[in-house]
Write a structure and sequence with these properties.
Low-confidence stretches: 184-204
CATH architecture of the domain at 15-155: 3-Layer(aba) Sandwich
Largest sheet: 6 strands, mixed
Structural class: alpha/beta
Strand order of the largest sheet: 4-3-2-5-6-7
Number of strands: 10
Number of helices: 3
Strand content: 25-35%
Mean pLDDT: 85
Oligomer: single chain
Radius of gyration: 18 Å
Shape: globular
Distance between the termini: 46 Å
């Protein structure tokens, strides 16, 4: 019987570390936009947790941003980006003449971010900045502006905190590296997780 690939999760960034860095990002963004109120444009589906926590952190900085979303698709069922980006759902907010912060979960090849920046620039916002939770520079194909970056990460496939593999792992409050191996002769998928403190606990 052919083996089914085993999946192993190696903890990367804990929930507490994520929340601490997001608070720092909110302070940076508040300074960058000064007294302006930006429109936050999140890229779904991966950024939904980050977007929510960032919006709350900005509220604690005295900001009241408008929130909108774009749905784009660039990944298939595997772990490699296709390089072809599709806009599945556009923003509804009028951004002409307004400051905009484009929020994404991870920047690797740059195809998705470049596509979305070009789309938003067509509406002539007064200011357009980016906030990326995870930057994976080893995968870069297209140079993109990164105004606010949470963490620089290695060239690994990362899941958790909104990021998925075939629709799974989005619910994890921390981030982990997903390793898939066909070496284990088993008829079912195995998931191994050895959490470090705080990885599977919600931040307070």
């Amino acid at each position: 019987m052919p083996s089914t690939p085993a999946e192993q999760l190696a903890p990367l960034i804990s929930a507490d570390d994520l929340q601490a860095r997001i608070s720092e990002l909110a302070r940076e963004i508040a300074l960058a936009f000064a007294a302006q109120t930006p429109v936050l444009v999140g890229l779904l589906k991966g950024s939904f947790m980050f977007m929510a926590d960032l919006a709350r952190a900005l509220h604690r900085q005295g900001m009241a941003p408008t929130v909108d979303f774009m749905i784009v698709a660039s990944y298939g069922a595997g772990t490699q980006t296709s390089g072809s980006v599709q806009l599945l759902s556009d923003i509804e907010t009028e951004i002409r003449g307004r400051p905009v912060l484009l929020v994404d979960d991870i920047l690797d090849s740059g195809h998705t971010l470049d596509f979305c920046l070009r789309r938003l620039r067509r509406d002539r916002p007064a200011q357009l900045r980016t906030c990326i939770l995870l930057d994976k520079p080893a995968r870069r194909v297209i140079a993109c502006p990164t105004d606010h970056v949470g963490f620089t990460v290695p060239n690994e496939f990362i899941v958790g905190y909104g990021l998925d593999y075939q629709g799974r792992y989005r619910e994890l409050p921390g981030l982990a590296v997903l390793n898939i191996s066909a070496d284990t002769p088993t008829g079912r998928i195995q998931t191994e997780l050895t959490p470090r403190p705080g990885f599977l606990e919600s931040a307070h």
